[in-house]
Specification:
Layout: H1 22-42, H2 45-53, H3 64-75, E1 78-82, H4 88-96, E2 99-103, H5 120-127, H6 134-147, H7 155-167, E3 170-173, E4 176-179, H8 182-185, H9 190-196, E5 201-204, H10 207-211, E6 223-227, H11 230-236, H12 241-251
Parallel strand pairs: 1-2, 3-6, 5-6
Antiparallel strand pairs: 3-4
Helix pairs in contact: 4-6, 6-7, 6-11
């Protein structure tokens, strides 16, 4: 999260509102149209339930305060626009305060199918549906709480738990796989790949294994962790995650199943 961004953040006006261009709204509209149909088929029921609760227009990029007005009475979360990339320390601190940092730019047409950096479509369409659910909202806040207590050298260990669940987690549903994570639900190509392709490895949800699994941000994931019962994820929030991180460090990382560029 600390690398240089290829995008320029949009700045809110004096009323806290970001004014997007018609071209930017058109990109949202095309992404929304495609992903709304795809998520109906490939996304987990937990995600779809949250999606139905949100005031998410297919015609234009939603305003963060509109999403906040919906989330607040449900789970106490808010959504705040931030620059394209923020550091882990700020990210964890915001999560601990139940504030979701939403990158304010939207991807270009060239990055339509997959963008390495989180954009406003990823943040709103991908992330906020899960934040309507008290269990997912608590898990995210717990990640923030733990992240605010650890040293910077430990950030990458904790973020893997967020990455392989909230960002790229799968769930078992209807005798098959359904996408749960925001990196999947907001990606035109990886959403279908994650649940249908025979290429990636799908592993059983295990906190210790997740902490030890390296990943890359610039490719479709070669490994997904599958949550058989959503309560397993919620219960993970109550674990001694500080102790888990120390134990994972003593065991070391698993060998990557890919070349090591952009590893995290």
């Amino acid at each position: 999260m600390s690398k240089r961004s290829n995008y320029i953040a949009k700045t809110p006006d004096h009323k806290g509102v970001i004014n997007y261009t018609e071209h930017e709204h058109a990109i949202w509209r095309d992404l929304y149209t495609q992903q709304f149909e795809s998520t109906a088929k490939y996304a987990a029921s937990s995600y779809l339930a949250g999606q139905a609760l949100l005031p998410m227009s297919e015609q234009c990029i939603p305003k963060c305060h509109e999403i906040t007005e919906c989330l607040m009475p449900l789970t106490g979360w808010s959504v705040t626009p931030v620059p394209a990339l923020i550091g882990f320390a700020e990210f964890f601190q915001m999560l601990s305060k139940k504030t979701f940092p939403a990158a304010s730019f939207i991807r270009s047409r060239e990055d339509f199918d997959y963008v390495e950096e989180p954009d406003i479509f990823h943040e709103i369409f991908g992330h906020t549906p899960l934040l309507t659910d008290p269990g997912f909202a608590h898990f995210s806040a717990r990640i923030g709480d733990i992240g605010s207590q650890i040293a910077p050298a430990d950030y990458s260990w904790l973020i893997r738990l967020y990455w392989f669940t909230i960002e790229f987690g799968l769930s078992k549903q209807d005798n098959g796989y359904k996408a749960l994570g925001s990196g999947l639900t907001s990606s035109p190509t990886e959403l279908i790949y994650s649940v249908s392709s025979t290429v990636p490895e799908r592993r059983e949800f295990n906190v210790m294994d997740i902490l030890r699994t390296p990943y890359r941000i610039d490719i479709h994931q070669p490994i997904y962790y599958v949550i058989d019962n959503i309560n397993d994820l919620f219960q993970a929030a109550e674990r001694d995650l500080l102790g888990d991180i120390k134990r994972a460090q003593s065991l070391g990382l698993f060998e990557p199943t890919y070349t090591t560029a952009c590893q995290a």
